Fold these 2 entries.
Entry 1:
Amino acid sequence: MLATIARRILYTLPIMLGVALVCFGLVHLAPGDPLISVLPPDASAELQKQLRTLYGFDRSLPEQFAGWIWRALQGDLGTSIASSRPVAAEVMRAVGNTLMLSACATAIGFFFGSLFGFVAGYFRDSVIDKAASFVSVLGVSVPHYWLGMVMVIVFSAQLGWLPATGAGPDGSGSWAWNWAHMQHLLLPAITMSVIPMGVIARTVRALVAEILAQEFVVGLRARGLTEFGVFRHVVKNVAPTALAVMGLQLGYLLGGSILIETVFSWPGTGFLLNSAIFQRDLPLLQGTILVLATFFVLLNVVVDILQSLLDPRISRG
Amino acid sequence: MSQVISTAKTTPLLEVRGLLKHFPIAGKTLSWGKSKVSVQAVDDISFTVMAGETLGIVGESGCGKSTTARLLMHLINPGAGEIVFDGTPVGSAALPLKAFHRQVQMVFQDSYSSLNPRLTIEESIAFAPQVHGTPKRESIQRARDLLSRVGLEPRRFAARYPHELSGGQRQRVNIARALALQPRVVILDEAVSALDKSVEAQVLNLLQDLKDEFGLTYVFISHDLNVVRYISDRVMVMYLGKIVEMGQTEAIFRDASHPYSQALLASMPALDPDDRTEIPPLAGDPPNPINPPSGCRFHTRCAAAESVCSQRAPGLAPTSENHVVSCLMFEADSGHTRATTQKVAA
Amino acid sequence: MTTSAMTAANAPFEKSPGFWASVWRRFKRDKTAMFAAAMIFTLLFIAVFGPWLAPADPYQASMLKRLKPIGFEGYWLGTDELGRDMVSRLLVGTRLSLFIGITPVVLAFVLGSLIGVFAGYIGGPVNTVVMRTIDVFYAFPSVLLAIALSGTLGAGITNALISLTIVFIPPIARVAEAVTAQVRGRDFVEAARASGANAFTIVRVHVLGNVLGPIFVYATSLIAVSMILASGLSFLGLGVKPPEPEWGLMLNTLRTAIYSQPWVAALPGLMIFITSISFNMLADGLRSAMDVKS
């Protein structure tokens, strides 16, 4: 058991190295001089040279990579060119906001998705099933940034019930557990939950239908197990996979939040990415991508391990 | 059975010397580097197949028969040992693999998965000749001829797909496919095991007819002793990767020498109440091919086992003309109390 | 030969429909799938003939006619923030939107299949190296990778196509490798090897016919995602550049209008939505039609 976990974690290390390499290389794909965004157009050669050395752009690529990794492991992701603040601090603050949003969205999506999926699976091929399946297809197909716009239009512009942008009143960038902040959270979270809801609904429906059709269920009923007993049985079988899918969806939301955060001006990592790209703030870009990718990889590892713990069918080693 | 005259002077068509195949298992530990644990599927076996005969290979699951088949076909590379075809080593300059494959072909057990579901029957059969340079039209014609020969009317079957045929019909197609290159040896790996009994009988008779018509040599692998008895001239019994007994069919079936062969034969279900066994002939579970017992591999389940059996592995000792046994009881001066220079009645 | 003998000799062989023919037959019976196919056909038609179907010039701006509502005289679906006719922009935009959505998947299908089939057939250490490299890219969430690549390469259609293709190669390669490895283990491939054929011939004759189908179905299911992502890139300003009509870009430029002309502003997204649903339904129908067991 421990060996399986240890092997899984060990296996992640080369992946992480690859990811770091890609993050680093990505940014150096960028055409143009990274220093441009910082320099005034008429900067002297002297100033250019100083800044270049300061940011480490004058050393060879492998050197830069090694140095970057080394510092990253110690928690130093460099300094943002645009804001001159430490990247790590900016990213961590933003990650908190995105995590809050993504977690809420995933929870909502999981709840409703499982509900629809169960209902559809139990009443397979009936009108209810077709309706629920249709709704999940819709969920999976919707362009979420457009949905966000529509939500803003309906609930904010037209009805005025909920605020359109920001994480808190007066554009505050930090979180607090009060109704004012919740109001800001509601629209983006619901918008974000639609795709996970669709994915989970489809997965759960397929699993439930498959399990109910299996012969051992007939055997259970024949032996006098109540419907509720059968239901619990189905839940036990569906849970590991459903939870795994939920975990993965959380990862996707974390990494792919930029579109929704742009629509709602939510001060999360996506928003940060956006500014980093348009301001060509390479340290910030690198740092943000690295953190998000790392989160995603770690999440995958955790999901894998949990799944092998919960699902006895998956071979242990 | 067709008459086979085998004298020691005739060159065997196929000769196997010291064939060995161990499959390493993907490491269950964290250690890097080659895993020391392996499945000893086939462990140093040697035998011959004479031209025109049918050699039956029997044994329980895991004894290594299928691996032997694949080694004979050179579908997997042996860890050690060599195969000699008609006096020429296989894989040498005189007999490269591709040429060897023209001579030796195989029919697999699962009739469905042996056929490409996307190709028509005649395309499947015509594939091998085309690979060897026969033009397409001629290959298709040969395919149709072979279909007739195996009892499937080309008009009805040539342009069909595998899933439209029954198991027996598919197996006939597989036989036709094996014959497409006009080989001299056909290896049949559990070829009739998956068929219904009545169909099995038809296919067996077909195999006999084809053998007579084309002068083929068969290696017939099966776990079904009745079938092997019916079709084979000689039989080879395998256990845990080793040959335990080999000889003429009737000699083995009427009067097996090796304790394992005896147990195997005794466990065949019989309709005659007098023939039925009450006592299970074999004690214990079949051991693990990953960690075979030391010395004679059968000693853990053998009623006649003695301490020397766990220390020394027996070779193949002759008990009479064309009959060898791998048991210390038949090796002179082996240390076993029952070892003499004469054959001991079981 | 007598006439009757000749007729007998030339009598047609009993043929059965091939694999794709039976897939098509099953597909035809699925009403939802056929409906989706019709929708997509319509969209493709519009994509090709858009410029001729459009009632007005999609680039023709008019400061006087900015942000007119739906149903405005002469402009059925209103005008955008620069006074351009929405109907024309939406119709002509079909071409670009479909193009940047479908092309990356097509390219990724070709490249991903090449990589995956190669790795799947070869097996062994080569397979491990190739697939681990693919896994590194697979370790990124797709949106993040697309944006990161696009962001660093810069805006523009070509860059967007490149980054999206790179995003979709890993999942397709993985599926290709898995299916190929599975087919390779089957007896008929072993039989083909036993007949002395070389690897190329075996892959061409025996493997491809059996793996391209499932890979293709998987790729089809990615088109909807690709469309949303591609338009999303334009929405962020990373894909198509103005003044080209493209639905995602139109959503971007119309964002400021959500308070003044909300329904006009929402229209381009509706087009993306409809297209995405159609492709998803098509992919579902294709998958069911190919599932021989059902």
Entry 2:
Amino acid sequence: MLFSCGGDDDICESGEGTPRMKVAFRSAESGKDRTLDSLYVAVDYGSGKVQLGGVAKADSKLIPLRVDDSPYTDVYFRLTNKGAEAKVRVKYTTKSTYVSPGCGMKKVYENLTSELITPNPVQNLEAGQNQIENEDKTNLYLLF
Amino acid sequence: MKTRLIFTFFFSILGILSWAQDKKETKKEQLKYEPNFMVGFDVLNTGAAFFSDRKLYQGFISSKIRGNVHAVAEAGFEKNIYQKNGYDAKVNGPFVKLGAFYMLAKDAENEFNGFYAGGKLGGSFYKQEYMAIPVRGFGGSSSSVAFPSSSQSSFWVEGTLGGRVQLFESNFYIDVNLQPRYLVYTTKQDDISPMIIPGFGRSSSKFNMGFAWNIAYKF
């Protein structure tokens, strides 16, 4: 319409929407934080695995979780692109809060618990902050 | 409680305005107010209502107060939906606008012919229902949250910029005006900014532009 120059600000800037889960890495032997040479992550958002790509020389990785009513998200980790894959199920409860016209609602995750369903290359898990309200604190440590 | 405060605020502004005008009147000692009214109905938006989801019916009553100053009151009803970017919402309700305009240029033979500019304060008292507000996710995962129907009210300031032309020698006029508006205050349901407001239009940004194409009758 000629006169509708109001302009909808439909843009949702990153960081305002649903926060992602922060995963950091530790050594299984010493328990100290470590940097991985490479890490490949995939997530099942309800319709099969979605590859989130790889990171190099990383000490942490932000992973978006499901925003539908599913009580868990399955996350897959590989150290190399063709290598063995570990499966981690992250369970949580969610709460919705309103953000802005552009972003709509966001989900906040609470009571985070993780379960290592398929080990290797991930040896074990260690819980971090058990709620995701922003992307500052580490929610889950992977032990390699 | 807040609504009442806002009301008081608006009416006190109106009170100040009309008081100020009265004062001027005594100063200039111009012609006395003769009862005159023009009643108009927006035919363009009514016609457009048949072809779109936006059902907007509005009309106005204006009266020449003194010199080039006319008072204007508008009222209307709007029913609308918003289905975009994961949103699914509907609203309906009445709205009113009160204000005044100044004849910037007028016909020497007929002072009701001409161009004018002015301002109005608008308020809408409506029912809204958000069937879906999106939760934006990653990788095709998304969901939405629904909210029950609720009653809300919104208030805005509006400019008016238009013209009036007499139709031949009749008492009928065509009145066309543009209405740039700015949303000042709105009540919210669970802090949700309204996406549409009856009488205002889309409100995801505070600024909006409306228009009216009226057929008016002068009494």
